[in-house]
């Protein structure tokens, strides 16, 4: 997992073309804190015919990956079954300040019961959203809806756009296994 004691984290590279003179790469710890603190992300997937599909959704950062859930028949789930590569983005929506983060990776369905229980606890603690774990997915108590699969996206590449003090664009590359 990136940033653990066994892994020093991703390699950071400042893109001088889009950064102010004298800028330095943002530390991964600052970017990871932004991912952990964000509640809403924009998920970008691709339909089978190549058209993009972008939606806002809540996600949580846990164990070096972003996690979200969706109904099995929702367009994003259909898209991810056909093409699991996707992008999640979060930020401030401000021009002169803040930090925007773009995470590229491959969505994988989470089926590990222990991890699903940890994620359900995070959803409750961070978003006040109650989920039960059932059949390897999330279910809202008392709902007639079928269980919703949970997906995890471990970053392959992250772009961070900082605008506090000086403009910076930092790319983080992750080791692939």
Automatic annotation (TrEMBL):
Domain called Pyridoxamine 5'-phosphate oxidase N-terminal: residue spans: 30-158
Keyword Oxidoreductase among record annotations: yes
Signal peptide: none
Coiled coil (UniProt feature): none
Protein keywords: Oxidoreductase
Gene3D superfamilies: Electron Transport, Fmn-binding Protein, Chain A
Residues that span the membrane, as ranges: none
Keyword rRNA-binding: no
Protein name: Pyridoxamine 5'-phosphate oxidase family protein
